[in-house]
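Title: Request for sanity check on DNA topoisomerase 1 prediction

Description:
We are preparing a figure and want to confirm that the structure record we downloaded matches what your pipeline produces today. Could someone re-run it with the sequence below and paste the raw structure tokens into this thread? We only need the token string, no images.
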Amino acid sequence: MPTKQVTTSSKKKTTRRKVKKNLVIVESPSKAKTIEKYLGSKYKVMASLGHIRDLPKSKMGIDVENNYEPHYISIRGKGDVIKELRKEAKKAEHVYLAADPDREGEAIAWHLSYLLGLDPKDKNRVVFNEITKDAVKNAFKSPRAINMDLVDAQQARRALDRLVGYSISPLLWAKIKKGLSAGRVQSIALNLIIQREKEIKNFKPEEYWTIDAEFKKEKHKFKAAFYGLDGKKTPLPNNDAVQQVMQKLDLKQPFTVANVEQKERRRQPPLPFTTSTMQQAANNNLKFRTQKTMMVAQQLYEGINIGRGGSVGLITYMRTDSTRISEVAKHEASAFIHEEYGDQYAALKPRQGKLAEGAQDAHEGIRPSSVLRTPKSLEKYLDKDQMKLYSLIWARFVASQMTPAVIDTMKVDLVQNGVTYRANGSKMKFDGFTKVYTDAKKTDNMLPNLVNGDEVILSKNQPNQHFTLPPARYTEASLIKTLEENGVGRPSTYAPTLNTIQKRYYVKLVARKFEPTELGEIVDNMISTCFPDILNVKFTADLESQLDEIEEGKQNWVQVIDQFYKPFAVEVKDAEKKMAKVKIKDEPAGFDCEICGAPMVIKMGRFGKFYACSRFPDCRNTQAIVKQIGVKCPKCGRGQIVERKSKRNRTFYGCNRYPECDFVSWDKPIGRACPKCQHFLIEKKTKKGIQVKCPNGDYEEAMQK
């Protein structure tokens, strides 16, 4: 019997080897989300949530006896983040550090490499100027080692700020009050505001007059103004000088056209935004505070979800002091302008700006990552603030690649009896870049056709008295411009500097202009007396230049700090002995404490003045200083509406019976009800005047100028 053949089929066990992923570390979750989408499944992108290591808050953290060695510690609350990053780094095939492309980003990458046990000499640092698919993928093709010159420059800045702040601040606490601070840039910003306030207080107005006139040639009317006597420009300091001019005139006789100058003027397009010019334009045009501008710009840079395209970075890196633009961006903009506006609007050779002294050219100017993403195409994806800022950046960049505007100008002198009036006119001949950047447009003011020897009739002649005005208080925009012009601070420092001097209540914003407080003047006086170099603009600008040279590898950071600190330490010791204690006197409030009956006083606190019991600390009764507006509370009917300030110094209105009544409104109630819906009416201030309206939108009254 044949043997039955038994075949055994063995099941092959296949074990799939788990492919290790590459770990990429960035600062923010939104940036991580955008980048992970571009890199694909082989990469895991995590966020460090900003800095993970810093100098301790409880002490200076700089060893001045040991080459200014900084003592870094892990930031409190970042323990879980660090633990998770270490865990993922151990599992990863390779770790890439993709923090922002500046000194601070380089320092974050260096701190990460230390905590994760990476060698900073390894090629694990990835930088890109814009968060787009091509830019990110290209950056990962050529990673580099951590640039220790950039790290040292950041360490030097951090050490200098710490040495100044932690040396002067304790003196301010001891001599004035606790909670105060001083710093290199913030002290100069405060001093500029105070010096301007002194100029305003010491200003003496000077009288001057103008004579505005209207002339007629046939049916055409045009305006002119008094220029001078006997062909020379003549000032009008008082009414006597005006009367001398008026006596020379014969109002029945015509004026003769004595000189006509016609010119063609070219108005050059603006350069792309730098950080400071963006902050200035956003403040002037959009009424954005500097901190808000940087926050919204960060959102646009890190990535916005634009539907099918997913999350994409809409602008290039927003901390830069260069106006340079990449060739790729120039070509894309040129093609867009040719197609959208016509050949005559595209500049053959776009205007190039000169790099300011001390400015860095590490990054491009601020521009859209793609000019094809027009503001209109992004309307449904951006919120109101994002749309405003993106539109401003987009228009400015496109305008920078366009041709100049061409304006016809005309200057005409009109003479009678030795008295000269001058008329100036202009007319847009070709709109050029102003077709896009409308902020730069001006209304046409063209004169009629006039030639030498023509006669024109004086129809109106109005003398006006004026007085010279004091210099304007600084706005956020003008203060940033002044700091930049003086070489004080850098793009990343302006927003936190302005925030700090307000947070410490050294200054306050009134009608969008800085006014120093009593506390600010006391602090400034103390610093200027004991630490003159800190307030020396040239000294601080030179120090900024040395920090830049550290970044370029031209200076040693320890030597730069040593040159600064040794004389500064002597000043600190002298100040400890010489600086007199300042007592901020309490002012009588004019009423008694409702708890113990003792007189109430007005005290100076961290956020301004407030009412407190004079028996403090035995009685701790305090009250906010509020202003009644003479309107009953529309909610409870028993309380009075008072004007208050939010933590961000924004005015709002609430019931004085709070917390019993929780009525609040950003807009000022006026004490009347809407005739349509009976809701309380509010008052809104606009450029044109005051608008009384119903918040429900059913009713509004005529504008009051």
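Thanks, this matches our download. Residues 587-693 form one domain.
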